[in-house]
Design brief:
binds adenosine-5'-triphosphate; 3-stranded antiparallel beta sheet; single chain; ABC transporter domain-containing protein; 251 residues; Rossmann fold; AAA+_ATPase
Length: 251
């Protein structure tokens, strides 16, 4: 089966900055893939390119075999949650969902059923009448995720979905993601958190617009440990040790 998401040799320059310098990776249906890297590594630019929102200097992206910049049907099968997700602050939780349902032209009965399920999953059902601007950071992100999932996309792109979210809500958000991935969704997530990287099926370590290393987090750490490197606390190395060593190695 062809990969749900393909990024091939992506290149993009912003003036003197080479944001993407040949980045490539693939994400299968039913896989949770994490792009991990320091600030400015090119993660957001890669995600936006996959959504067809960045003009590339070279390389190509494919979403379910199609070019997302071509518009049309594939856009409808794509969900995206950018870092700054704009909900309507003066609308309630329920009204925000209804707004996005109209945007996706969902039939009323379909919307009702999905909104009910998403509100239950995100545990926002008790807050359906609360205005979005009065939600906590974690609840706001969960509502954004619910809005991005309302049209049941086959592919989901999430840019640092848990930044500013408390540990309990972070855990809930990840549990939700795993549930959707079990259902066959392809999910690409960027994260600056090492513990989150470890929750992905596979991760790509991005630095200066390139992939330094890729694989299942456990395999990457095992490979690193096999090089005879100790962890920062003297014990076995973990993902954070690997990350710091790889990035510093290229500094
Ligand atoms: N529209 C733009 N105009 C100019 N420079 C840009 C633009 N978008 C990104 N860049 C630059 O490209 C580089 C990669 O940025 P990008 O946002 O993709 O990194 P990132 O890995 O997502 O980092 P962060 O987590 O800090 O957002 C950075 O140096 C950034 O300043």
């Amino acid at each position: 089966m062809p990969a749900a998401l393909v990024a091939r040799e992506l290149r993009r320059r912003f003036g003197p900055v080479e944001a993407l310098a040949g980045l490539g990776f693939e994400v299968a249906a039913g896989e949770l893939y994490g792009l991990v890297g320091p600030d400015g590594a090119g993660k957001t630019t890669a995600l936006r390119a996959l959504a067809g929102l960045v003009r590339l200097d070279a390389g190509e992206v494919r979403v379910l075999g199609q070019d997302p910049a071509g518009g049309g049907e594939v856009r409808e099968r794509l969900g995206m949650m950018p870092q700054q997700y704009s909900l309507y602050g003066d609308l309630s939780v329920a009204e925000n969902l209804a707004f996005f349902a109209r945007l996706y032209a969902l039939p009323r009965a379909t919307f009702r059923e999905r909104a009910r399920r998403l509100l239950a999953l995100t545990r926002l059902d008790r807050f359906r009448e609360r205005r979005a601007e009065a939600l906590s950071g974690g609840m706001y992100k969960k509502l954004a995720l619910a809005c991005a999932l309302l049209h049941e996309p086959a592919v989901l792109l999430l840019d640092e979905p848990t930044t500013g979210v408390d540990p309990v809500s972070r855990r809930e958000l990840w549990a939700l993601l795993h549930e959707f991935v079990h259902g066959g969704m392809a999910v690409l997530v960027t994260t600056p958190y090492m513990d989150e990287a470890e929750r992905c099926d596979r991760v790509g370590l991005v630095h200066r617009g390139r992939l330094l290393e890729e694989g299942a987090p456990r395999d990457l750490v095992d490979r690193y440990a096999a090089e005879g490197r100790p962890g920062r606390h003297g014990g076995a190395p973990d993902f954070e040790d690997l990350f710091v060593a790889r990035v510093e190695g290229r500094a």
